[in-house]
Structure formats: C-alpha cells, structure tokens
Design brief:
The protein is α/β, with parallel strands linked by helices. It has 2 domains: 6-252, 3-Layer(aba) Sandwich (Aspartate Aminotransferase, domain 2); 259-397, Aspartate Aminotransferase, domain 1. Helix content is 38%, strand content 14%. The chain is built from 15 helices and 12 strands. Helix 5 links the parallel strand 2 and strand 3 (126-130). Helix 1 (6-12) packs antiparallel against helix 3, helix 3 runs parallel beside helix 10 and helix 13 (318-330) packs across helix 15 (383-397). The longest helix has 21 residues, at 258-278. It is globular. The protein starts with 5 loop residues before the first helix and ends in a 7-residue tail after the last helix.
C-alpha cells in the first residue's frame, strides 16, 4: 500500500504557545470565564460553538491533541479520553441502545471482551463473537438488530489482521457501522481510509510510548464527535472520562516522534522474529511470511512502518513461559508487565493477564494457550545484543535441541 502521509501532517500542525512558545501552552483550568451571562447560557443551549465552558466538555490542551489525532487517522474530528477503555465504552454506549446487537471479533483485548460479554447485556445490548478474519462468519452473524461491527486491526494478543475493506462492505450493506481499535498499529494501518466509521486508540501504548500515562482517543466524523460531548445526551460528556490537560500536552509532544519510533519498533521486532523462528521456535509475527495474513498485510499496510512491535513466542507450557519472562527481566531485556508500545521491551503471558477475562475454553479455541508469551519489542539500539540475551534465557527454559 502507498506510504502514509499522516506523519507529515502531524509535523505540519502548529499550535503556538500563549507567549510565543513552540509548544502550545497547557491550559491548567477546570472552568472558563464569560464576559456576558447570555453567552454562557447560549453555550449550554448549543447555540454557540467555539467557546470553552468547562474542562469536562473541552479545554484547549485536549483540543490540540484531538486535532493531531484526527490528522493521524484521517478523520474529520477526534476526542480524547482518560483511558482506552473509556474511549471504547463511550463509543459503544453512544451508538447502542437496548435491543441492539454488536458483532465483534473474538480475539480482542480482555477488557473490551468483558465489557461486551458481561456489562453491556445489563443494558440490553448483546454481542456475537466471531472470527473477523473470516468474512463469512461475520456475514452470518449480522442480523436486523446489528448496530455495529467491532474489531481490532491487529488483534490482541494473537496478532490476527482483519481486512477492514471487506468489513466496510458488510457494514454498509447491512446499514451498520464499523468501529476499529487501531491501538496495536498506528501509522501501519489507516482504518478510516479503508472505510471504517470510527477509529479508537489506547494512547497509553505506542502513540504516547513512554509508559507514563493512561489515555484514549476516538476518531470519527464531526457529527459523531459532537454527539459524544453533547451536554444532554453525550456519553463522553455525561460519563465524564476527561483527560487531564497536562497529559494531553505530554502526549502531543510525544506524537511528534511516533513515525520514528514505529519504524524502529518494527525493525527490531522483525529481526528478532526471523532469528527466533530460524532457531526453531514457534513465532507469531505478521511480518513473517508464514503468518496467515502476511499477504493481506502487504496489501493494506503502509509499508514504511513495517509489521509492528508485537510478537508472540509459544513455549508450550505455562511454567516454562513464566520462567522465561522472569529470566528476561533479570537479564534486563525488559519488564514483566502488562501493556505495550513502550520504549522498553514489555512482556506478559496474556492467558493469565490481559486476556484472562476470556473464558478458558474460548481461549483454547482461538489458540491462546497458557504457554504463549506476548512481547512488545522496545527501541533497542543493538537488537543483535538483545537477541543474544533472549537466546540465553530460552536455552535455560527450552533448549534448542529439544525444540524440534
């Protein structure tokens, strides 16, 4: 696919600081003044736009970051939230009412799964979980009650890639919306460019990249974003998942290096995946030519940014996987921690952590066994050195001679 220009567009954004600073001033205020009482009343009534009222509604710092995210995803507008889950829940609750159905990918973040499986049914909203890499399964699951199709461009943690182009066709043909979580693959994929209606991010991960905050984003049409912060019926307004202005300012600065970081993440991950696969280990990585969606990746990804930072190694047994992660942390390869997209390598066994909300029998059906280790490769400068250290850890728990 052609190279993406959104990174250049982000660089083009200029928000001057209050006193001429090259970074926009941080608006550290919960509320805003009005010169006339009538103006305040008109803002509440929706008769006037462009005025700041209260930071749960908008503030300048959040607006700057939202504009940058809209540029990143090629949407008309965006809204930032206090977490990725806040972005997901606000979106689904804004779109769905009692009696509506969601058709969702079966391989998604555990929190997203739990929201749809356990919480939304309390509100009369039910979800059918299918393999979204199989268009026929999605088509069969859609009913007259289907309000939206939900998937992750690159799934957590199995790294399956969904063809957004095909889901877009299904959504439009059935008068429903397509919502895509693009957290694992900013810059690599452009879901909105392929027809997705709404794109969600956990900014906590790659977009911020420093493991120092929790934040989320919703990117979509101006009409949809406006509906989210409507003072009478907007889920983002009424549920209050506001992002702190200091965090918005910090994330905006980190976004300026996203294109550089994503390329380095991908180079490192591809190098490690190839070497470890050659050593005889079962590796799941979209950039390897034995990945089920390798050809699809080449068709729909922006090649400049590779195949991402996430890889999975299958060590067959839970105890072996746990020992391997402990050894990697002791060797200062990275941290045994949930989350991903950090400058430092992070690793966890998703079956017992980020995907633990999914029932065991369902995890087994999708191949998410307890021996899998998900590794988010960091920005290491000497990836050959990292490979040697990982190999030493693997030799202790899973000697190559036994890995046949």
């Amino acid at each position: 696919m052609k190279d993406l220009k959104s990174a250049d567009h982000i660089q083009d954004l200029q928000f001057f600081g209050e006193f001429g600073g090259v970074n926009p001033s941080i608006c550290d205020s919960s509320t805003f003044t009005f010169l006339q009482a009538k103006t305040m009343a008109d803002v509440f009534d929706g008769k006037i736009e462009g005025c700041y009222l209260y930071s749960r509604h908008w503030n300048p710092s959040n607006l700057y970051l939202s504009k940058a995210l809209a540029q990143l995803e090629g949407t008309e507008s965006a809204l930032v939230t206090a977490s990725g889950m806040a972005a997901i829940s606000s979106t689904l609750l804004q779109l769905c009412s009692a009696g509506d159905e969601i058709v969702s990918s079966r391989t998604i973040y555990g929190g997203s799964y739990a929201l749809m499986k356990n919480f939304l049914p309390k509100l009369g909203i039910n979800t059918k979980f299918v393999d979204t890499t199989d268009t026929q399964q999605v088509r069969k699951a859609i009913s007259k009650q289907t309000r939206l199709i939900y998937c992750e461009t690159m799934s957590n943690p199995m790294l399956e890639i969904t063809d957004i182009r095909e889901l877009t066709k299904l959504a439009k043909a059935n008068n429903c919306l397509l919502v895509v979580d693009n957290t694992f693959s900013p810059l690599i994929f452009s879901p909105a460019e392929m027809g997705a209606d709404i794109v969600i991010h956990s900014l906590t991960k790659f977009i911020n990249g420093m493991s120092d905050c929790v934040a989320g984003a919703i990117c979509g049409s101006q009409e949809f974003i406006n509906s989210l912060y409507d003072v009478n019926s907007g889920s983002a307004m009424l549920l209050g998942p506001v992002l702190d202005s200091h965090r918005s300012a910090s994330i905006l600065k980190n976004m300026k290096t996203l294109h550089i970081r994503m390329q380095q993440h991908a180079r490192n991950a591809l190098s490690l995946a190839k070497k470890l696969q050659a050593d005889g280990y079962r590796i799941i990585y979209p950039g390897l030519d034995n990945h089920p969606q390798y050809t699809l990746l080449k068709e729909i990804a922006h090649t400049k940014y590779g195949a991402g930072a996430l890889m999975v190694i299958d060590l067959k047994e839970k105890e072996r996987a746990n020992r391997f992660m402990e050894l990697m942390q002791e060797a200062n390869i990275g941290y045994l921690a949930v989350s991903l997209g950090s400058y430092k390598t992070l690793f966890s066994a998703p079956g017992g952590s980020t995907s633990s909300e999914i029932p065991e029998h369902e995890r087994m059906q999708m191949g998410l066994t307890d021996g899998l280790v998900r590794i988010s490769i960091g920005l290491d400068d000497d990836i050959e050195r990292t490979y040697e250290k990982i190999s030493q850890c693997l030799d202790i728990v899973h000697p190559k001679s036994k890995n046949k």
